[in-house]
## 1
Amino acid sequence: MGLFSKKQKIDYDSLFREKYKSINQLSMQAQDELDFQIKESLLALVVEEYKELLNYIDQGANFEKEHFLALMENVEKELKSIHQINQDA
């Protein structure tokens, strides 16, 4: 009976929506970025955020995993392309 007697249910759907909103903002920022070094960093962050989003699905968020996995893979392809451009520069 004390501070730790109540278990709070985590609302993974809400966490998912907030994270996805953040991902969209970062993605838009990356698309608008002209400096390819910064663009690469932003896209790497977007990929990491997608991994966290997929983790929320694994923990119970009610969203289609394959859809968001495909979105992450598209960002990974773009990141690889930008990385190659930065290596060649």
Note: The chain has three helices and no strands.
## 2
Amino acid sequence: MKEKTFQILNDRTLLSRKEKVFSRLQDFYDGKREENTLNLNGYVFFPEGVDPYREPERWVDAALDYMAEHAEKLSADERLLRPLCIEFGPYGVHFVDKILGANVFMVDGQWNCEYLKTPIGSLEMPDLDKDPTWQLAERVAKYFVAQKVALPIFGLPTIASPLNVAVNLYGSEVFCAFFDDEEGIRHDLKVITDVQKEIHRRYREMIPEKQLQPVVSWERTQPYGCGQICGCSTQMLSGEMYREFIMDLDDDLLSVYPHAGMIHLCGSHAQHIENFAQMKNLKALQLHNRAAQDLKLYLEGLRKDQVIYVNCCEEMPYEEALKISGGERVIFVGEYEPVKKGQGNK
């Protein structure tokens, strides 16, 4: 029964539409743009009534069953990119924290993390092959691959900037350590970077490149072979501190992917624009909510080959973002009217 249900997820017509989506994305990244903007609004389903922590295979089946029933939602419309995505993000933004030994727990539907009681400078590289958190994530990935369905995108768990993870593990002590224990914090940031690079490498070995996308795959979809990190906590650093302690680590993390990648930003990060422009492995930035308010600064300060994803918000509505950008180098997350070359006001 399952084999028959999943058959449409290898349908040639739908696969052709998927290739069209990614061809348009690649052209946009390469500067070959018939239109100034693209509109991205992927489709993802999180099965209810199935606990992926207890029954990961059943959870994958439920997600694929639902996707098969709604496969025609993959848009062939020229104005909209709508990839179909499956994504299980174990422990939310605390996935790597748990692998590194933090106590991660659920409160009111939200994953939380206790700070480590061990001192900064004492992190050790975990043995992923013996780690229950990684084993769960790997189990989901391998079962997905075993279903041999080519249409869905597989989104990864949250694998963030090493600074994000360090703040989750130690809180404000991280920022004190930049001044009081530079050797210790550099050691721990390197361990965090190394374990995350290893996780990315393992996923790249398991998941076909044409299906692998980093976290929030339906809104941050990139061309094949691109990575991503969440850079939320960089808003707490000056440009100088980011450049001294974090920038090279973020760039190194993106280097795992053959075609560079993206940084997700959701706060006030404009002090880093000059740094972002210098990162050779940074190809795209996603401006979410507060970060979108600085769209003009990013357009002016980034390299011309760097693409900007914009999640519009009340303070930066679509009409204003379009007026500021003229649609230049911008992918809008959501369903908006398309912008052809020459339209819009810069």
Note: The chain has a mean pLDDT of 92.
## 3
Amino acid sequence: MAQDIATIGYIAFVTLALISPFLPLFLMWRAAGLAVAFYAIASLLEGPVHWTEQDFGWAIGQAILVLFSFAIALLIALRLCFSTYRGQLKPETLAGSKGRPMRALDLVFLGVVGGFTGLLLTLGLSMLLSGQPFGGGLDRTIAVLTGASGAALLIFSRANTAIVFSTALGTISITAFMGSAQADRILTGAEELSEGRPWCLTSGTFSSQISSVGELGFFAMRKSTTYPHLGILVRENGMVRFIAHWSIRQQRFVPAWGAIDTVSACVPITDYADTLQSGAIDEGVYAVGSALYAIPADFQARVTPRRISIRSTLLVGTDSVHPKIAERVSLTENASDPSLPEDALSLEMMPNPAKLSASDFTHPNHIRLAGIEERTGRTVILDCLSGPYADELCRAQVFEGSRRYDFLLPFRRIQNWSEATDQIAGLFEGFRLTQASGHVP
């Protein structure tokens, strides 16, 4: 429905903009103002265009829109200049007659402005109330309060400007009422998309898991400036896939944009809707790759369906002076094959930190090492003495089968990268669950 209204808004914008320069002055500025208002409403309802869809056709469309708007603005400016030259640009000329037709037109203009204002306020409220657990009840409360306030204002106020405020409140009320059934639409749509496969609902990257139906309300749903607000993951052939995201404006699931790492991990199960409604979601368990991981909150996990990043003092120690970024270690499942840097030295040329002087610990003496360890078959890329922590840390990427471990290692321990990898692998293995744990992969 939102898209249909947006289409009507764009048609109204083009029509009014085209005719506005050729109308009498008192109609010209009103038509131009309405055109701008309709375009603003249509843009809000349609929402931003994702970068993956900003192709050549989109660029051509944007160029045409800019040229069209510029041409209309130029015609209006020339018309105003000509009217000024002839002495026609007077307040009474711009105001027009005071008859009923003109008053009705002004009320329409104020109503459209109020509608746009209502949409802006709805957008602001949805961000302000994001993350609240009250669900549809919050939506219905807002619908009743704003609807009653708008009606009272319209009845008891005789000022024309009351039209703007009452229409704005009415817009919020209608939107909230229509959005009050969003949770049901989400669960129904997700079950249809899953087609019997295990599924779950997830939010944007690094957000906590969704644990109740109340979080799916129109105003309560978590929102961010990044994509997506809500997505559906399904388990297929032992792996988790991100198949669609929820469009709040369109009130339906649409095909997913981008990579799976743009969403948080959750655990797909066949009876996810019932589990969510009963509040039995385990927020500390995540499906990553083909496995399940239970990660304590103390590790401040950031989990996507392919990657786990945790905070740990395992490598740097609890008394380390290294910044917190050095305490982040990560595991990536189904990582892409490693590509060894051409300028990297072999592992046999690894320097002994104990034999380096103070002058060696400077940014120009950047060291990069790469190779395959014969004992384990691991591929490693070590990037040392570079970046903001050039005097202390090495960035390590270690590939083992389909997994990749990323961590920062103190330079004095560069020769112990393999032992450090063993420690990290053991840490993540300790988080891994088996089917006997009561969770069904």
Note: The longest strand covers residues 239-247.
